[in-house]
Amino acid sequence: MAPSLKTSIGRLLGASVFLFLIGGGALTLSSCAEAAKLTIEAGTGPKPALPEERHKLIPTIHIAPARGWPTNLTPVAAAGTSVGAFAAGLDHPRWLFVLPNGDVLVAETNAPPKPDDMKGIRGWFMKRVMKKAGAAVPSANRITLLRDADGDGIAEVKSVLLSGLNSPFGMALVANSLYVAASDAVLRFPYVEGDTTIPGGGTRVVDLPAGTLNHHWTKSLIASPDGTRLYATVGSNSNVAENGMALEEGRAAIWEIDLATGVKRLFATGLRNPNGMAFEPASGALWTVVNERDELGSDLVPDYLTSVKDGGFYGWPYSYFGSRVDKRVKPPNPELVATAIVPDYALGSHTASLGLAWSLGTTLPAPFTHGMFIGQHGSWNRRPRSGYKVVFVPFEGSRPFPQPPIDLLTGFVDPEGHAYGRPVGVALDRQGALLVADDVGNVVWRVTSRP
């Protein structure tokens, strides 16, 4: 049978099964979920287990339906630490940035309109899955300023700093300019320390890949230590380039932006969906966390934390973890695969690792003193679930220890499998506590050292 005919038949059969799942009521979403054969720890560290791929007509679907936090319940903090709400009653808080004066900026945001994404029966079904997971709420499209003037660990000031933005996400401050990465561009706004609102529109610095598909829409942002450059993440427009490579131009990448000239260039490529970024101070290297591809089974492919090399290629879509070829991608590109860099540290399959912060300045106790904090939003494509927590990867010098991550904040999923919350962005505040944006709980949590 010709490959194209096989593909067409497979799609038709898949559509029929999806219709049965949706309309028949005989199966729940969890019935589509094949169980992992490996522990999540087996898929972590510098040398994760990479078992054989498992291809199924219906992908593994095992979400944690969004519930929200009951009154007086919080996440569970690791020994020696405690957690409380820094700010509650927010609207889908996703990303955080701490200003030099201690004010905290939070991006209240969600996906922009993208009418060409998730089309057809399969797309309709996946939209229902995302809605169940709490990922389909309208975007507030604003940056909110939170201020804890009396230092009690709770923000008593909540002010809309910027509004009317196009799905804002990443933020960075350079001198008196606040940069915001919206879903389609980097914008610049004048910033005066202490102000709680910025009137007027911003200046468009550079465009970023977007459009009516814009599958991975979040754009993170970080300034270089010397303030001369910005780095912006842009996720892929698909899972594994199933829409064609023409729609992936400039995507699955980190862009470097020269602030003096406004010129941008591709800094690193082959990163399926990079999100949080951080500089490791001893080496000066840029690090990022990346969400890897789906639909190869519950044990593949591990998300990862990696240093990012200028000009480096990290495999997507043709391969993963170096030269492990993804046979779904046609045509293959063996020459490019031969150059693929192996990521530094795996974070477990489907953990949806998004937030990233280096530990410099933390007042949390050991073992959370030297390494990277990571917010894991949680899986939909693995059984049992993975992620739904905040973890810490200890470093020795400028490299991660070869051991599994350490849990810092857990308890985001209830015993029945519903999500109280889902952690996303992480940032250290001026007192060295860790802030965590929870977009299902609509809370920014604050983790401190226990007295």
- Poorly predicted sequence stretches spanning 5 or more consecutive residues: 1-31
Count of structural domains = 1
Q: Which oligomeric state applies?
A: single chain
Proportion of beta-strand residues: 25-35%
Which sheet architecture does the biggest sheet show? 6 strands, antiparallel
CATH superfamily: TolB, C-terminal domain
Could you give the count of β-strands? 29
Using the coordinates shown, work out and report the CATH topology.
Neuraminidase
Descriptive account of the structure:
- The protein is mainly β.
- It has helices spanning 3-23, 120-132, 334-337; strands spanning 44-45, 76-77, 81-87, 93-98, 104-108, 142-147, 157-162, 171-174, 177-181, 185-190, 203-207, 221-223, 229-234, 253-258, 264-269, 273-279, 286-291, 302-307, 319-320, 324-325, 345-349, 353-358, 371-376, 389-396, 399-400, 406-410, 423-428, 434-438, 443-449.
- The protein is globular.
- Residues 1-31 have low confidence and may be disordered.
How would you sum up this structure in a few lines?
The protein contains three helices and 29 strands. It has 451 residues and is mostly beta strands.
List keywords for this structure.
3 helices, Neuraminidase, 451 residues, disordered N terminus, six-stranded antiparallel β-sheet, 29 strands, mainly beta, five-stranded antiparallel β-sheet
Q: How are the SSEs placed, and which strands pair?
A:
Blueprint: H1 3-23, E1 44-45, E2 76-77, E3 81-87, E4 93-98, E5 104-108, H2 120-132, E6 142-147, E7 157-162, E8 171-174, E9 177-181, E10 185-190, E11 203-207, E12 221-223, E13 229-234, E14 253-258, E15 264-269, E16 273-279, E17 286-291, E18 302-307, E19 319-320, E20 324-325, H3 334-337, E21 345-349, E22 353-358, E23 371-376, E24 389-396, E25 399-400, E26 406-410, E27 423-428, E28 434-438, E29 443-449
